[in-house]
């Protein structure tokens, strides 16, 4: 049995290196579809049949769909599923292959088009949904987008141009519009996003809009009364604008319709409190008026309190609380009966303008009154610092003093820097309490704030012999190290204790050895150096994903094609976008580069070099511009081969699928980063076998037919990890839904697992994918209870093992370790053998007696207690 399994493994490894079937000619259409991150939809695909056969339709072809993006998957019906983390706005290529149902009727052709990923808009809303405009006047309207990143995802708006004139300003998250009335009438502005989300605004254009007035400036009423506001609309009745109808109760916005259920002229005093009511319409001057309304309760005041305790001059946040006998706040009429020249009531707040005694009187609903007197205390009116302009030397300390003309307030500091020290991003001063410490050349303004009072001091730190330099890396790659140092301008080194401060994307030893670590691709972090004399230096550092190697396949393009989009460069840290690369074309008379695309100019061969902006590593590949009538095809134009392993070159066919013999030769070779020799690949021409000798090597292999037609293959080497890891144990419950995953991991940077063979001892327990191509995990679903082991094997035989316990929690009998339906001494013996590491099979869910997800000695103790 073991030998048969070993043969199966070797066969699968051999199949991994064999080429696929030929693919059709690819045509770049330039057409765009639209979608968003997280979308699942079937777009409306264009019919390309007439481009490959006169009078043909899609019914004459078999259509297959293929995604060229890691962010997008397409099923057999063309349904596209976008990953939730898809960046936008961005384009992602996909292909539709037309295969003739009848040989000779049309040509097998692949059409490449792009799906433009736009902002995932979940809602489109307007600043108002009812707008009244005077003819000839202009008003403003804003359309807001929810869950968006770009307003360019909307299509043109719809409206009646005879009624209004519309100007639009597209901006991130919104559309700012100016609407001008052209003639009297009504129309609807409708704005629709790419995914059907829309918003509509009714617009009324009128000839004239009149004034609006209330009968008096303030009203009082008891709860449940109705107040006639005696509104005057002027010389004509017009429609009020909903956006100008607002009610604020005790400073908080509430629903307008609750208090005006019938019309805007009668206020229903449903709730007690102090109201500010605004009613208006959108006219030439945005006509609106506000009236104050106090609604009182049928209650009796027991005591009066001020929220701030003591009453100070000029405080604007002193809320008056009227409490009944049970301490519940109530609303009753109030008046200043003493000190009205230095105090006033504004709704529920007390305002003071002078010193002295103030008496506040509340009139109860039974006619009695309750009063309380307050003494308005002095409040500081001026604040100053003991210095307004300082010049300090590095290391000097100055003590600030905050002085008030009377009394004292709590205060806080703010620092604004006129300039930063660009050498190591160290602020020129820092504050410790009231102490100003000079630490680098530069200038800053220190501002102290106490309520509405402010005072400032400008500080200049002069450059001099005491200046210290914090030496940090300009660019630190992930996995690279740098020795931090502190010196003065003469180079004298100062002992210090180093540490990271925030966003620790690196590790730092106390003696200053800084190492960049991987936390999602790099970023910025903080460093701190504490000197022996107590001075503290701070600096920033930046960690980048610096690749150790790059690679890119060779490119063939017909001179008749307008352009071809280049794939992102691959590296040991993942795809590298072209904005992070420098691209050089050796002969721009053959092809030129721009914005991720190559533009062919004439037939010939040139070399393109890609250099990483961070790290400087580079790679090169050839670009061959072919005559328009070349018709040879490859199943795949790229190969990946592990170091010290071989693979067969793919079969070459014509457009009808007939095999075409070619003569292979290595036409471009890059030995790879840190390769001590020059040989990266070797080719056995007779057998058509390519061998990789170095993990970061790349090469181009060209095949030439008897007629002189060419095909090219780019081959890339990679390094298999010397050891891989799986989770030690996994417990699966067939009662739970969803699939489980076992993920391969390894510790060596710059490696790739490549094709993985998965083998299970007992494949009756669950469904799983036995072979995965270029993936590091295996998903499966449980079938029936039991225990087995899963092995993951790479092409060179490196493997890892995971034990899987499949349980059925609905059938579990705690303590029945051997699964015979009886709890006895044999279960205890079986569990002890398992815990001792013997080859003993247990029923996992029954052996986990304490249900903590682990079978250990505590379960054995529980079982012994059950048997006693």
Backbone CA Rg = 39 Å
Give the helix proportion (percent range): under 10%
Q: Report, as a whole number of angstroms, the end-to-end distance.
A: 44 Å
The number of helical runs is 5
Report the structural category: mainly beta
Largest sheet: 5 strands, mixed
- What portion of residues belong to β-strands? over 45%
Rounded mean pLDDT is 81
Spatial order of strands in the largest sheet: 15-21-20-17-18
General shape: extended
pLDDT under 50 segments (min length 5)?
A: 6-22
Number of strands: 74
Task: Describe the protein's architecture and organization.
With 868 residues, this protein is mainly β. It has five helices and 74 strands. The strands form 22 sheets. Strands 15-21-20-17-18 form a five-stranded mixed beta sheet. Strands 22, 24, 25, 27 and 28 form a five-stranded antiparallel beta sheet that branches. Strands 67-74-73-69-71 form a five-stranded mixed beta sheet, covered by helices on one side. A hairpin with a 5-residue loop joins strand 24 and strand 25 (329-330). Helix 3 (825-835) packs antiparallel against helix 5 (857-867). The longest helix is centred in the first third of the chain and has 16 residues, at 2-17. The two termini are 44 Å apart. Mean pLDDT is 81; it is low at 6-22.
């Amino acid at each position: 049995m073991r030998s048969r399994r070993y043969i199966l493994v070797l066969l699968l490894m051999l199949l991994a290196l064999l080429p696929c079937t030929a693919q059709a000619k690819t045509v770049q259409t330039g057409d765009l579809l639209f979608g968003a991150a997280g979308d699942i939809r079937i777009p409306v695909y264009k019919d390309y049949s007439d481009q490959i056969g006169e009078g043909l339709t899609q019914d004459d072809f078999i259509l297959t769909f293929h995604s060229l993006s890691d962010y997008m998957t397409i099923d057999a019906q063309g349904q596209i599923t976008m990953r939730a983390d898809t960046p936008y706005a961005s384009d992602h290529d996909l292909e539709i292959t037309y295969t003739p149902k009848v040989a000779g009727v049309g040509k097998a052709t692949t059409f490449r088009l792009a799906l433009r990923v736009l902002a995932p808009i979940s809602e489109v809303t307007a600043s108002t949904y009812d707008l009244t405009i005077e003819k000839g006047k202009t008003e403003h309207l804003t359309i807001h987008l929810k869950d968006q990143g770009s307003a360019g995802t909307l299509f043109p708006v719809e409206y009646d141009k005879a009624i209004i004139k519309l100007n639009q300003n597209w901006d991130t998250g919104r559309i700012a519009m100016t609407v001008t009335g052209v003639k009297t009438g009504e129309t609807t502005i409708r704005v629709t996003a790419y995914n059907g989300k829309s918003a509509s605004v009714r617009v009324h254009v009128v000839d004239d809009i009149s004034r609006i007035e209330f009968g008096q400036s303030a009203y009082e009423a008891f709860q449940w009364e109705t107040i006639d506001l005696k509104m005057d609309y002027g010389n004509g009745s017009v429609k009020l604008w909903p956006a100008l109808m607002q009610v604020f109760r005790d400073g908080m916005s509430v629903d307008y319709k609750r208090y005006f259920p019938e019309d805007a002229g009668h206020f229903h005093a449903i709730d007690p409190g102090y109201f500010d009511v605004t009613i208006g319409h959108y006219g030439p001057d945005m006509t609106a008026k506000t009236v104050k309304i106090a609604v009182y309760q049928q209650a009796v005041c027991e005591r009066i309190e001020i929220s701030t305790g003591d009453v100070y001059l000029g405080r604007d946040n002193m809320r008056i609380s009227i409490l009944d006998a049970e301490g519940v706040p109530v609303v009753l009429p109030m008046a200043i009966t003493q000190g009205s020249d230095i105090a006033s009531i504004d709704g529920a707040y007390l305002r003071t303008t002078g010193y002295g005694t103030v008496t506040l009187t509340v009139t109860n609903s039974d006619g009695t009154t309750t009063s309380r007197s307050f003494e308005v205390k002095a409040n500081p009116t001026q604040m100053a610092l003991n210095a307004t302009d300082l010049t300090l030397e590095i290391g000097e300390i100055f003590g600030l003093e905050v002085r008030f003309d009377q009394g004292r307030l709590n205060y806080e500091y703010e620092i604004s820097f006129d300039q930063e020290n660009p050498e190591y991003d160290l602020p020129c001063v820092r504050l410790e309490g009231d102490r100003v410490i000079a630490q680098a050349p530069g200038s800053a303004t220190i501002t102290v704030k106490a309520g509405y009072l402010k005072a400032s001091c400008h500080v200049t730190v002069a450059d001099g012999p005491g200046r210290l330099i914090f030496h940090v890396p300009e660019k630190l790659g992930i996995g690279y190290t740098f020795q931090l140092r502190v010196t003065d301008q003469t180079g004298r080194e100062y002992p210090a204790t180093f540490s990271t401060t925030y966003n620790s994307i690196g590790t730092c030893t106390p003696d200053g050895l800084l190492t960049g670590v991987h936390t999602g691709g790099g970023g910025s972090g903080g460093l701190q150096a504490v000197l022996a004399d107590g001075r503290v230096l701070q600096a920033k550092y930046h960690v980048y994903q610096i690749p150790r190697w790059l690679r890119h396949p060779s490119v063939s393009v017909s001179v008749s094609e307008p352009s071809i989009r280049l794939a992102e460069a691959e590296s040991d840290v993942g795809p590298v976008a072209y904005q992070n690369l420098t691209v050089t074309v050796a002969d721009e008379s053959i092809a030129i580069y721009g914005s991720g695309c190559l533009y062919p100019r004439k037939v010939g061969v040139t070399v393109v070099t890609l250099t990483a902006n961070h790290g400087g590593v580079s790679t090169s590949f050839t670009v061959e511009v072919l005559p328009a009538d070349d018709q040879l095809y490859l199943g795949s134009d790229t190969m990946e081969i592990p170091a010290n392993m071989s693979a067969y070159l793919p079969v070459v066919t014509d457009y009808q699928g007939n095999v075409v013999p070619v003569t292979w030769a290595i036409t471009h070779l890059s030995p790879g980063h840190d390769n001590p020799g020059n040989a990266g690949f070797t080719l056995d021409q007779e057998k058509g076998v390519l061998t990789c000798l170095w993990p970061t090597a790349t090469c181009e292999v060209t095949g030439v037919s008897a007629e002189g037609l060419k095909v090219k293959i780019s081959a890339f080497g990679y390094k298999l990890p010397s050891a891989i890891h799986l989770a030690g144990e996994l417990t699966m419950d067939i009662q739970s839904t969803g699939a489980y995953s076992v993920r391969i991991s390894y510790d060596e940077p710059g490696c790739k697992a490549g094709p993985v063979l998965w083998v299970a001892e007992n494949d009756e327990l669950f469904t799983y994918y036995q072979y995965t191509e270029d993936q590091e995990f295996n998903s499966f679903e449980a079938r029936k209870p039991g225990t087995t082991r899963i092995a993951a094997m790479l092409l060179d035989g490196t493997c890892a093992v995971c034990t899987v316990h499949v349980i059925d929690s609905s059938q579990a009998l705690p303590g029945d370790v051997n699964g015979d339906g009886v709890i006895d001494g044999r279960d205890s013996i079986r569990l002890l053998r398992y815990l001792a590491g013997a080859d003993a099979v247990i029923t996992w869910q029954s052996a986990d007696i304490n249900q903590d997800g682990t079978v250990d000695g505590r379960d054995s103790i529980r079982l012994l207690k059950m048997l006693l």
